[in-house]
């Protein structure tokens, strides 16, 4: 009877045995210090490294030597409209700077060398305004309160070749150019050199395409004093510090100025003379 009793109570459950084994193992591991392995690694032989995979060669269509090919914005194209017949044709599209030749010189003028690394661009003599058939005037008409329309504008400027039609507002600050073309306050509003500035990007990018105008394209200026039509004779880049394009003139002309995309040191300048 006693033997049967001990047989029933002495054997330990399996979980208790496992717990005891776990405690014993933990005690042994704690008492045994951990030693770091020591090893040496020989340097790799020179030249055994592979080529970097993050550098991909630039492929220029039609270029024989990529190091002698102009890949700057001067050679860039604006892609055709998506889905148009020209969309999948290599080399199609509109030049980003259409009046620049391959060498970077302006198509509508000639470059004369000066300080190394700079060029002064002037319109070609054949395209300079001539005295024949032009209207000479006093060269300046001031803006007065009587010249404003009821909506606060001074008139309308249009260029059908680029779809430009914008109202004119006094001043060249953002408030004026958000509404239309801003009039340089130091220039005339009718006789002489009438100069305007406008944005070339964003929602109100009224002057975004003036650099695509060509010689002979028409610009129309309409004010309370009348309407005049002008012919483009010069499209070029000028330095941001070149204010000579705003100088008074005895000849009736219109000057348009806007920024050059990604070239903060330059401005697009379009000049016209009265027809």
Q: Which keywords apply here?
A:
two-stranded antiparallel ribbon; 275 residues; 8-stranded mixed barrel; single chain
Summarize the SSE layout with pairings.
Elements: H1 2-9, H2 14-31, E1 77-78, E2 94-95, E3 110-113, E4 119-122, E5 155-159, E6 164-170, H3 174-177, E7 181-183, E8 193-197, E9 218-223, E10 226-239, E11 253-260, E12 263-274
Parallel strand pairs: 6-7, 8-11
Antiparallel strand pairs: 1-2, 3-4, 5-6, 5-9, 7-8, 9-10, 10-12, 11-12
Q: Class of the domain at 132-274 in CATH?
A: Mainly Beta
Task: Categorize the overall geometry.
Answer: elongated
Low confidence ranges:
101-137
Q: What is the CATH architecture descriptor of the domain at 132-274?
A: Beta Barrel
Q: Major sheet: size, sense and barrel closure?
A: 8 strands, mixed, barrel
Structural class: alpha+beta
Q: For the terminal residues, how far apart are their CA atoms? A: 133 Å
Outline the structure in words.
The chain has 3 helices and 12 strands. Strands 5-6-7-8-11-12-10-9 form an 8-stranded mixed beta barrel. Strands 1-2 form a two-stranded antiparallel ribbon. A two-stranded antiparallel ribbon has the order 3-4.
How would you summarize this macromolecular structure in one to three sentences?
The chain has 275 residues and is α+β, with helices and mostly antiparallel strands.
């Amino acid at each position: 009877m006693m033997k049967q009793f001990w047989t029933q109570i002495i054997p330990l459950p399996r979980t208790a045995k496992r717990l005891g084994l776990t405690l014993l193992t933990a005690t042994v591991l704690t008492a045994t210090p951990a030693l770091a392995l020591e090893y040496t690694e020989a340097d790799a032989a020179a030249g055994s490294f592979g080529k970097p995979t993050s550098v991909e060669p630039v492929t220029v269509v039609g270029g024989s030597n990529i190091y002698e090919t102009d890949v700057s914005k001067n050679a860039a194209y604006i892609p055709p409209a998506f889905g148009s017949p020209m969309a999948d044709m290599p080399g199609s599209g509109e030049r980003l700077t259409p009046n620049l030749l391959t060498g970077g010189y302006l198509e509508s003028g000639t470059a004369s060398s000066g300080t190394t690394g700079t060029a002064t661009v002037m319109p070609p003599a054949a395209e300079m305004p001539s005295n024949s058939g032009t209207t000479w005037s006093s060269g300046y008409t001031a803006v007065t309160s009587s010249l404003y329309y009821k909506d606060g504008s001074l008139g309308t400027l249009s260029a059908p070749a680029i779809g430009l039609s914008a109202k004119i507002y006094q001043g060249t600050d953002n408030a004026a150019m958000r509404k239309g073309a801003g009039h340089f306050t130091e220039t005339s509003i009718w006789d002489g050199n009438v100069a305007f500035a406008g944005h070339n990007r964003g929602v109100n990018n009224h002057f975004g395409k003036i650099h695509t105008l060509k010689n002979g394209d028409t610009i129309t200026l309409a004010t309370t004093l009348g309407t005049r039509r002008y012919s483009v004779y010069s499209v070029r880049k000028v330095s941001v510090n070149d204010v000579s394009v705003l100088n008074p003139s005895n000849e009736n002309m219109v000057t348009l100025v806007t920024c050059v995309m990604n070239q903060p040191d330059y401005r697009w300048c379009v000049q016209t003379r009265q027809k």
